Amino acid sequence: MAGQQNTAVSDPFESTYESVEGTQIKMITENTQVVITLNGSRAAADLAAMLPLEMTLIERNSFAKGMTLPEHLSSAEATTREYEIGDFGYWSAGPDLAIFYDDIYEQTIVDVIPLGHAETGAETMANERGTVRLEFVSEEGDSTENE
């Protein structure tokens, strides 16, 4: 249309993305493995696009294990400070991931974007140290080796 200018600014967070809701990933350490089911958030889709990843575990106040990502995920998401054992979330200021293995606190001290949940096994992360690997769970139940 002649004479009209498009003044809309492109917002990268408004672009469409493919939901990964229900996708399962494995968190693997030397001694344990936890299966996490991702939610349908943009941040979860961003994380899935980065997999597989290897990171160093960081103890977070005796209730969560953190991992620093190589780059930021989408932060245009609802945040919360409430958590349950097994919750898996993202702290954008890190940019860090966290899996909560104990419920000794009423809530976190930072806002976290929920990414998913582990139904079982999160408690086994309490004594884990060193390197952690995040990768997809294949349809056969084995991890994928595609890097």
Automatic annotation (TrEMBL):
UniProt-listed InterPro entries: Cyclophilin-like, Cyclophilin-like_dom_sf
Top-level division of the source organism's lineage: Bacteria
Gene3D superfamilies: 2.40.100.20
Alphabetized SUPFAM superfamilies for the sequence: Cyclophilin-like
Domain Cyclophilin-like: 27-136
Record-linked Pfam families: Cyclophil_like2
Name of the molecule in the record: Cyclophilin-like domain-containing protein
Organism (species): [Clostridium] methylpentosum DSM 5476
